[in-house]
Write a structure and sequence with these properties.
The chain contains seven helices and eleven strands. With about 200 residues, it is α+β, with helices and mostly antiparallel strands. The chain has two domains: about 50 residues, 2,3-Dihydroxybiphenyl 1,2-Dioxygenase, domain 1; about 110 residues, Signal recognition particle alu RNA binding heterodimer, srp9/1. The strands form three sheets. The chain has a five-stranded mixed beta sheet, with helices on one face. It is extended and about 70 Å long. The protein starts with a strand and ends in a 7-residue tail after the last helix.
Length: about 200
């Protein structure tokens, strides 16, 4: 490396260096996993209501909207959710194959419960609250009937989760055990250890 008269750094490359650099950019068809899940697109027949509902649920804001499409985000991604306006007469998706639900993971139990209380106080009620074993989950349904899961991971590492799987508890009950969210909030506020609050409960 050297400098030009303007004191800018300049890298001098020989022909062999250039060939090596070109070789480093070869495309061989190797397996490369995606860097992230970018966004989800939903078809809506309640376009305006759906924008407000999802913004409320996720603490998101509308980045762009016109009569056909709306982009919403809650972080540094340009959009995490897109809504397509299919009009009020659009049919239901039905009970056949297709997407079952979306899931969003929160960083802590406190964050999940804060969100539950905020939504509860805004008259957005969950349809299902359950400890699945791997996750503690609170489910909602949007104005178009699409289910969304807000969750936390119950285990600190994948290895810890796999060790729990090996006990057979999940194989015995792969759905989970329901809980009262207001009771969970009260126990959290009372200072019970989080590991106890998210532990697989005994059958009632």
């Amino acid at each position: 490396m050297t400098g030009d008269p303007g004191d800018n750094s300049v890298i001098l490359m020989t022909p062999s260096d250039a060939l090596t650099a070109a070789a480093d950019r070869s495309v061989t068809g190797r397996t490369v996993a995606p860097a992230k899940l970018a966004h989800v697109v939903l078809r809506s027949r309640s376009f305006a209501d759906a924008q407000e509902w999802w913004a409320t649920l996720l603490g998101a804001h509308v980045v762009f909207a016109n009569d056909f499409i709306a982009f919403l985000t809650y972080d540094d991604e340009h959009h995490r959710l897109a809504l397509l306006n299919y009009g009020e007469g659009a049919p239901d998706q039905g009970e056949g194959v297709g997407m079952d639900h979306l899931a969003f993971t929160f960083a802590s139990l406190g964050d999940l419960l804060e969100t539950y209380v905020r939504l509860r106080d805004a008259d957005v009620a969950p349809i299902w609250t359950i400890n699945h074993g791997p996750t503690t989950s609170i489910y909602y349904r949007d104005p178009d009937g699409i289910q969304v899961e807000l969750q936390i991971d119950n285990f600190p590492t994948l290895e810890a989760l796999e060790a729990w799987f090996a006990t057979g508890a999940f194989a015995t009950n792969p759905i989970g055990i329901e809980f009262d969210p207001d009771e969970l909030v009260a126990r959290f506020e009372a200072g019970e250890p989080v590991e106890d609050l998210v532990a697989w409960p005994t059958e009632p």
